[in-house]
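Next up, sample data:
>
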Amino acid sequence: MDRLKLSLRGALLVAPLVLSGGNALGRDDGRYANSPLKPWFDSLRSHLGPCCSDADGFALADLDWESHNGRYRVRIDGQWIDVPDEAVITEPNRAGRTMVWPVKTAFGISIRCFMPGSMI
């Protein structure tokens, strides 16, 4: 019985840390402060929320994303992840390159924002 109480107490202490892992925290370290695209990146949003900035997303190589029947999927850390329709940014891509903003949690990786490349 004491072990059960101790396990429950431990779970209650750890749960807030695990659940808060889904929040995307910005990590703008100033590298892009002088970029003419910074205000545009900062304003990007999907239906799932703000993408944050260029510093939070990363460019994908052509081999790491694909489109099939109007749906996208991306490869992150060797794993293919379906991009929810709500995560796709539909405004014109000023950066030109395909980008993704993943959110890594204890439950896996989800996609906050996805912006297909300009395909030029």
Notes: The chain has two helices and eight strands. The mean pLDDT is 78. The beta strands are 45-46, 49-50, 58-59, 65-68, 71-76, 79-82, 99-105, 108-115. The first strand starts at residue 45 and ends at 46.
